[in-house]
Amino acid sequence: MTVEPDSSSDRVMEDATMAEKQELTREGAVATSGVPMPTIQGPISVDATNPSTTKAAHTSISNLPSAAVSEKTLRASTPTSSEDTGVSHQQHGKKKGFSFGKSRKAKEAAEKKNSEKEEELAAIPPVGFFKLYRFATPLERTFNIIGVILAAAAGAAQPLMTLIFGRFTTSITEFGKIEQTIAEHRGMATAAERAALEAAKHDLRIASGHNALYLMAIGIGIFITTFSYMFIFNWTGELNAKRIRQRYLKAVLRQDIAYFDDVGAGEVATRIQTDCHLVQEGTSEKVALVVQYFATFVTGFVLAFVRGPILALALSSILIVIMFVGIMMHKFMGPWNMQALDAIAKGGSLAEEVVGSVRTAQAFGTVAVLRSKFEVYMDTMKEKGRKLAVVEGLGVGGMFFAIYSAYALAFFFGGILAVREPNKYNAGVVINVFMSILIGSFSMAMVQPEMQKVTKAQGAAAKLFSTIDRIPAIDSADPGGEKPNHVDGTITFENVKFHYPSRPNVPILKGLTINFPAGKTTALVGASGSGKSTVVSLIERFYDPISGTISLDGRELKSLNLKWLRQNVGLVSQEPTLFGTTVRGNVEHGLIGSKWENASDAEKLELVKKACMAANAHDFILKLPHGYDTHVGERGMLLSGGQKQRVAIARAIVSDPRILLLDEATSALDTQSEGIVQDALDKASKGRTTIVIAHRLSTVKDADTIVVMGGGEILEQGTHYDLLADENGPYAQLVANQKLAMEAAKAKAAEDGEEVADPDAVKPAMLAVSQPGSPVTEKNGYDLTRAVTGRSLASAMMEDITAKKLEEEEAAEKTPNMFKMYKRLTGMNGENKWFLVLGLMGAMASGMTYPALSILFGSALQDFQLQDPNLLKHELTVKARYYFITAILAASAITVQISCFARAGWDLTAKLRGTQFSSVLRHDIEWFDEEKNSTGAVTSDIADTPQRIQGLFGSTMGTILQSLTTLIGGCIIGLCYGPLLALIGIACIPILVSGGFFRLHVVVLKEQKTRKIHASSAHLASEAAGAVRTVASLTREDDVDRIYSTALKGPLKVAVQGSIKSQLLYGASQGISFCIIALVFYVGSLWIISGRYDTAHFFTVLTAVIFASIQAGNVFNFVPDASKANGAAANYFRLVDNVPEIDALSPEGIQLDPTQVQGHIRIEGVHFRYPSRPGVRVLRDLSLDVPPGTYVALVGASGCGKSTTTQMIERFYDPLIGKVTLDGVDIREINVASYRSQLALVSQEPTLYAGTVRFNICLGANKPMEEVTDEELFAAAKNANIYDFVMSLPDGFDTEVGGKGSQLSGGQKQRIAIARALIRNPKVLLLDEATSALDSQSERVVQDALDKAAKGRTTIAIAHRLSTIQKADIIYCFADGKVKEKGTHSELLALKGSYYELVQMQNLSRQQ
């Protein structure tokens, strides 16, 4: 048999995995060293070659004559990993089922086919660049063109600055030559020479003033152009993205349901939240930055080749070297990087599975096994990470060797040219050419990450636009089609054949012909997969039949206007979707498209109240805090299941539709809630064409016609009694599966001389003398609230616990001492302490490289003042040699720094992930009940927290130390060589450093802020996309579009207003550095003229202080990383240090001897409230006794405390008052792990993990997996009725079950869960509604397995379907958190109390 897995859950997991991978691959490498000389302003992102490193920070290469370029810049130029070139989260359609009946070869063929389909879906070509702006207005396009011109101007201005710098240098060196000539005469200078000196001073003063003004003008120009283009592109980008978001959501809601079979709500949410953001990012300032960098590249190289073509050609060789090293890095790092990412993703998937089923993990004591499995993935990640660290260090070191060697080449070859062509090559030309080439080269390095953003936007837009342009076959936006004035409600199917588009080989309906009479109720029953829900989907026109016709009042559905059709059909499904608004708002959604859509508020409210009364919802709504204006929460989570269902019924009938479709509208409810809702449905269906689908046959026995379906065909039809006449008929067999035995009750009643009432004659209306909490009680408006009395002892204890928890939370909010946390983290990474020491030494050495080279730089420029050509050539060759030696030393230091820190970072990440995973599973269930500790949040934390901590403790820590070393070293050298000029520079440091601060806010934090302000609107879109069937059935498409459009206006306004201020500051920070350079140059020139400084000292101070300060400003790039790391570290230690009240890993407590355990469970006077809901009393003085070896059943309405009781027995919680004992010993005194080893739990939704059948069953064993024998395994499987099925699989017990057991059906998963429970040979077996989610046929097989499992051991079972527990030794009937009745099935029936009432509501047997 082929079993279709739950594609939606698979898709969600794919989403999560892809999200983690993309987040990791967006993480960039970090700057670790500075390069003397040119830098380029603007954001720099880097290659995602190392997920252990921090997010791409933004380096200021500030276009100054001598600034700092970091490794980050270089790594930006290297090719990125394949993951990083992905355009967006990919969704590849529905995952195929695991074909158990096929051979391995057949499965491989099927997998290959699936793979080809995925490749086909992924092959949508990116849109053209200009297509990104297809929704922009002509005005916006005009402004974008202006912005491009301004960006090109800003880019061209940067190399032009080197021209001014070169002229400054020439002026100073020419003045120095004259000074040197006079100095050689030792005061014997002639009058002409003195006159020449005075003229040179005058010329230098004038030239310095002019050049300083030119620099200031460039600075002001860059301020104006940068502000203008950044604001223009931010503004137009926001508008463009807003339109795309609107059009995409509108297009999504327009699609037919078949579209969502392959896409899924998870992908829609991803596209709304992620891909729209990618398009916005790629159409905003990234485009302008690309233009700016290209302009810088072109201008730089043109200027260099114009000023000195031979030297420019020689220096261009560094580009080739850097590109070669980058390619080699990618070649080696790519495969290892992908393997590391895959290991992280697999670990994340395991964590999500385990955390999502933490009760199962703790109940079976599987924490150690699952932790070891998780650590295998982390070890793989660590192994690959260490290799990546070495290659990364060597690669970046090689790049920096090329750069520093270029300095040597510039002065060596520049010296030769200066001697050979003194009129063409002087100090100014050499510096001008050298700086222009470097600035141009680094601008190309920085283009790559920005281009990548644009490329990602093109890919993301392709997916978005393909949906926007898609016109579905069933188009809700099509205004065409008939709109009849009158509807009778007769629906006819004629020879209808159908299969789902996503599963064309699986026929669902096989020539179905059926008539649904107007005004009558028709029930569809049958096994799962028989086509019942498909009929409803076809009537709603979620799909069209493959062949045959469906008509309404003689008109084919296809000929009718789609919205008109859906507005005349009311739909209530099994799991009703409410939207995050008020009760009234939700019901009013049903008025959309009706004649009351535009009625007054008062009129609408009357209609709403009328519908709610008909739906039995009015009374409970009035008891809500704000009545009809009470907010129901996300997806109606603040209401109970029954309440949500009744609001959904009111919504379905408020517009008085002629047709009502009820798709298992009560199957998820307990018996008492079902009674209320069923009564509401009975009312609602009067006078309407009603089609009902139900597994619980008790809900449809009064239907006018019951149609039994099987295999897409009608097996039989008739009334309830007509169909029961054929005892061997399909309907009679379905009834038999749910039939309750009454014979014992008859015998008991006969003994007492009582007459047994006819169950079919007992109607809910007759049960006026109902028990408190019954449907009738609620219907009659009895006050179910607790009377105000004195505080109970449990209340007092709960208040103490709550107060204590508040104190703990307040203490937790205080971030611990940063240095203490860092000390602990360093201690955790103790095995790498020598690597950290080496890394720190390398960071300090690379940090001092730049200040040290400033001495060489000043000295080399002074050499150009030498008159003797041979001496000039000799001195510059010596300086070049020193530069080359420095290149070797610096490259070595950088290699050591990156390799050591990256290795330590990978190791720390692996350790943090492992310990966090263990700490999470150690926590008690109370911790997981808190909203902040949901599965998604905890899984995300396991992925993010170590990543954020490592973001600071990996290469970033070395970079920060290196930047500080550069700043301090530069200031010291500056003070040593020229104290006064250095002090001016040091005074300007706060201004220069502020440039980094503003870049942080504008460039780095912009993305975070954008995501944050779009969060609420994105949530609204996700909610609509996740409930697309409900939106379609209510024809809410235009309503959602209107609300979403309004929700986007707020973020747009905030973004544009914030952009003005931030871009002004950003532009100013880019221009101010030129003004400071101009100031220092001018003052320095005056002091050179006065003789206070010579050329060497001036340039040494300038490069050491000013450009070191600009480099230090890059420290702000790591503020987000440091802030995140602080918060993450605090959260991590809070988690690790927290010792839960119920510690499953604690060795303390009594160790049980399995041979002595009897299995006698007693609950004595227990009071309990869930800590997450302290105001709700759950158990109230509960006492029950479960003797060894007995089968005890717990029954009662939802919320009466049944499941809570099993959780108390499992010791997931401790009682506030009272105790739970095992064989007379308080379970709080027993070791938690030892106690739970004697219990086994089978829950309603069985949890399996990705792995083999063998692995999943052996997880339950009370000994290591490898010690479980095949005999034990087979015995457990046989007792669970799963052995034969498993052996029929191609790989037997070694068959993979898929993530969360997705390759198995519900019944198969449940039986494997039973086998897992049995293999531990428990003394106590807990069954929590183990069959309630199954259809009748699957239930029968599983129930047989449970009956086998219960033999010879203490069994406690919870069931809503009372037919499954009628043979229990004792049945405890719960109400209001305590036992109301107890006894056997027949004894409780004879009492005619609460249990009897529950039985009557489910009873289908005929009285003869």
UniProtKB/TrEMBL annotation:
UniProt GO MF annotations: ABC-type oligopeptide transporter activity; ATP binding; ATP hydrolysis activity
- Show the segment(s) annotated as Disordered: 1-118
Spell out the Basic and acidic residues composition-biased ranges: 8-26, 106-116
Transmembrane feature ranges? 143-165, 212-235, 287-304, 310-329, 388-419, 425-447, 834-861, 881-902, 952-975, 981-1002, 1071-1090, 1096-1116
Q: What InterPro entries has UniProt attached to this entry? A: AAA+_ATPase, ABC1_TM_dom, ABC1_TM_sf, ABC_transporter-like_ATP-bd, ABC_transporter-like_CS, P-loop_NTPase, Type_1_exporter
Q: Which residues form the ABC transmembrane type-1 domain?
A: 145-456, 837-1124
Where in or outside the cell it occurs: the entry states: Membrane
* Any one Gene Ontology cellular component term annotated for this protein: mitochondrial inner membrane
Per UniProt, the ranges with Polar residues bias are 47-65, 75-90
Checking PROSITE patterns in the record gives:
ABC_TM1F, ABC_TRANSPORTER_1, ABC_TRANSPORTER_2
Q: Where is the composition biased (Basic residues)?
A: 91-105
Start and end of every ABC transporter domain?
491-736, 1161-1401
One GO process term, biological-process aspect: oligopeptide export from mitochondrion
* Protein name per its UniProtKB record: Multidrug resistance protein 1
Task: Identify the CDD domains for this entry.
Answer: ABC_6TM_Pgp_ABCB1_D1_like, ABC_6TM_Pgp_ABCB1_D2_like, ABC_MTABC3_MDL1_MDL2
Keywords of the record? ATP-binding, Membrane, Nucleotide-binding, Transmembrane, Transmembrane helix, Transport
Q: How does it sit in the membrane?
A: Multi-pass membrane protein
Native source species? Kockovaella imperatae
